[in-house]
């Protein structure tokens, strides 16, 4: 029996966050404070924050593997963010997780 390891298959995490009325500036600050540190975490390939015309925020992340994403999610930075997040959100985040099926470009190619 052959098993296939998913250790090095890139994964993506993306979704929308809607700020509670009067909380857009604070949510923006919290999200922006994640960008550069997250990009520096081992396994981060892409980490982007977008702001929609309707006021929602869109996060788009690609990680080298599920294990890299799990390590990122276990950091004190992310745990503190997740503890503070509900106070600034209207409803629940609209989040999606997937395996990146298109080839990820190699550096220098």
TrEMBL record:
Domain of life where this protein originates: Bacteria
Span of domain ABM: 11-97
Gene3D superfamilies in alphabetical order: 3.30.70.100
Pfam families: ABM
Protein name: ABM domain-containing protein
Originating species: Actinoallomurus liliacearum
Lineage: Bacteria, Bacillati, Actinomycetota, Actinomycetes, Streptosporangiales
């Amino acid at each position: 029996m052959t098993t296939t390891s998913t250790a090095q298959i890139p994964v993506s995490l993306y979704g929308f966050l809607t700020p509670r009325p009067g909380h857009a500036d604070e949510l923006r600050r919290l999200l922006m404070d994640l960008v550069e540190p997250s990009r520096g975490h081992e396994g981060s390939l892409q980490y982007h924050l977008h702001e929609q015309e309707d006021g929602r925020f869109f996060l788009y992340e690609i990680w080298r593997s599920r294990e890299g994403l799990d390590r990122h999610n276990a950091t004190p930075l992310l745990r503190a963010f997740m503890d503070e997040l509900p106070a600034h959100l209207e409803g629940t985040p609209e989040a999606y997780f997937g395996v990146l099926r298109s080839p990820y470009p190699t550096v220098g190619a």
